[in-house]
């Protein structure tokens, strides 16, 4: 792996070797992982390495790790004999995990840590890598997996680390960086990923051309985003056919020249409406194609991540896990229906938020979905609305949804502009939850974070959050 983060990656690798040695002295490993794309990809990478090195393993996927989940997890194994790997969470719970699992655990995580580095704790922040843009749980798991088994066994697993990174939107700056980039280069060298500079719009392989443009949110293309009629006229006026032999054309059906023609037409259009050059530049960036996948939702690494997210966030993480381990039959077919249903739920959730409108505190927008949107989807929907440009991005957005256990799920999203000014949603969620007490717990990243709070504490939480954001010097440096 050759990149400018070589030193950090070498130190991470050394740390991973210590962990791999610990793991190797156990026969049965229990992988406890987050239920989203990054968590599922991490679990599959680790499972493959463990399987290959002759270990018995089981995997448990959970929505979020809370202190009160630890006892249940402990019961899934033999506490003194088995080894527990926590992937894509655990950074807020090191001390509790130590109390429950002694020395028989590893935390592989990229969320902002609460405790300093230690032997059982592999978190990229401790090695100078930003856990929201330079390393995810799947890329860290890939490094650990390499210390657990022979490189040949993992030949097809580097792309999964990239899928994990894209699931967590770690390419939001236009390309992957840091450890993610090092693994990407390795996958490219081995031929399993192709990197192209192309339109960064979502759905290259799966969306008809019209929807490819209509659903563009990064950047928003005023007049075309969200407007099917205008987009159809735009495509026809620029000489594009929409169907071939009765079948809707998608972007990847176009020839190289046609793709260039479409990019040029979009850029000319965006300039004609005086869009700032920096926004126009967001249209083109790196896209990642999985060379060994057949055409479909697994061909583009970002779409692969959406499929895993759809499985995990709709109570079927095991289906995503099987797909990561290679299933393209029974489980894959099920995943396609889950994906269609997932998209429908996202559309409906977005419509609900638009219909009802957001409430506004002094320093953030908020929306309380109650039980009308699944707690597992509220964060994605809030993020979609936020990036749609239908609301101002001067303040972060906070969305609430009821959990099954009587708590309220909080999902918070911000922009890079706000985090650059010092807003740190992860720390904010953590400190508000801690102050609120009553089993509230929160954390995450600067740009995307979450919490759980008791239902009757919702108003108190909103006031506390606004108060904290009001003390601008602490969270937002102007
Ligand atoms: O737990 P984890 O780190 O895996 O989840 C990251 C979450 O943050 C994802 O749901 C992702 O969609 C969200 N995110 C976001 N915008 C970003 C970065 C991450 O909404 N720019
Ligand atoms: O659930 P959601 O997608 O909104 O989560 C955003 C980010 O906040 C994720 O990285 C998630 O792991 C993190 N989070 C957390 N603690 C919580 C809830 C979410 O660290 N209680």
Counting helices, strands and paired strands, the structural category is alpha/beta
Architecture per CATH nomenclature, i.e. the level-2 architecture of the largest domain:
Alpha-Beta Complex
What is the rounded distance between the termini? 39 Å
Number of helices: 19
Strand order of the largest sheet: 10-11-12-13-15-14
CA-based gyration radius: 22 Å
Describe the largest sheet.
6 strands, mixed
* Residue windows where pLDDT falls under 50 for at least 5 positions: none
What's the overall geometry? Answer: globular
> Which small-molecule ligands are present, each listed once?
cytidine-5'-monophosphate
Question: Which percent range describes the beta-strand content?
Answer: 15-25%
For the record, the count of structural domains works out to 3
Percent of residues in helices comes to: 40-55%
């Amino acid at each position: 792996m050759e990149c400018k983060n070589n030193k950090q990656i070498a130190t991470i690798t050394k740390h991973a070797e210590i962990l791999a040695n610990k793991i190797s002295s156990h026969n049965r490993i229990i992988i406890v992982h987050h239920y989203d794309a990054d968590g599922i990809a991490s679990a599959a990478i680790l499972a493959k390495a463990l399987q290959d090195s002759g270990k018995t393993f089981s995997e448990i996927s959970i929505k979020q790790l809370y202190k009160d989940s630890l006892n249940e997890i402990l019961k899934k194994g033999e506490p003194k004999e088995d080894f527990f790997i926590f992937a894509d969470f655990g950074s807020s719970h090191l001390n509790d995990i130590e109390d429950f699992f002694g020395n028989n655990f590893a935390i592989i995580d990229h969320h902002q840590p609460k405790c300093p580095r230690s032997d059982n704790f592999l978190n990229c922040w401790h090695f100078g890598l930003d856990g929201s843009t330079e390393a995810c749980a799947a890329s860290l798991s890939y490094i650990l997996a390499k210390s657990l088994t022979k490189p040949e066994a993992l030949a097809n697993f580097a792309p999964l680390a990239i899928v994990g990174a894209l699931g967590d939107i770690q390419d939001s700056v236009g390309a992957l960086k840091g450890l993610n980039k090092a693994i990407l280069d390795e996958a490219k060298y081995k031929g399993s990923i192709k990197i192209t500079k192309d339109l960064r719009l979502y759905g290259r392989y799966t969306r008809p051309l019209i929807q490819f443009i209509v659903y563009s949110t990064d950047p928003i293309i005023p007049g075309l985003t969200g407007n099917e009629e205008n987009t159809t006229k735009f495509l026809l006026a620029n000489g594009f056919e929409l169907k071939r032999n009765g079948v809707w054309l998608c972007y990847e059906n176009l020839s190289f020249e046609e793709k260039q023609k479409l990019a040029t037409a979009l850029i000319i259009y965006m300039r004609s409406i005086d869009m700032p050059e920096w926004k126009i530049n967001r249209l083109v960036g790196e896209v990642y194609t999985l060379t060994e996948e057949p055409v479909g939702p697994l061909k583009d690494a970002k779409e692969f991540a959406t499929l895993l997210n759809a499985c995990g966030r709709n109570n079927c993480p095991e289906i995503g896990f099987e797909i990561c381990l290679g299933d393209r039959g029974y489980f894959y077919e099920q995943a396609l229906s889950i994906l269609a249903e997932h998209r429908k739920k996202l559309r409906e959730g977005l419509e609900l938020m638009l219909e009802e409108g957001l409430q506004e505190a002094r320093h953030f927008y908020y929306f309380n979905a109650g039980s009308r949107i699944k707690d597992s989807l509220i964060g994605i929907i809030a993020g979609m609305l936020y990036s749609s440009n239908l609301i101002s991005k001067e303040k972060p957005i906070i969305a609430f949804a009821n959990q099954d256990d009587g708590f309220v799920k909080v999902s918070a999203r911000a922009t890079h502009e706000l985090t650059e000014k010092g807003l740190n949603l992860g720390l904010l969620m953590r400190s508000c939850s801690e102050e609120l007490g009553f089993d509230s717990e929160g954390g995450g990243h600067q740009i995307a974070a979450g919490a759980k709070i008791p239902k009757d504490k919702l108003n108190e939480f909103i006031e506390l959050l606004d108060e904290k954001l009001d003390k601008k010097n602490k969270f937002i440096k102007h």
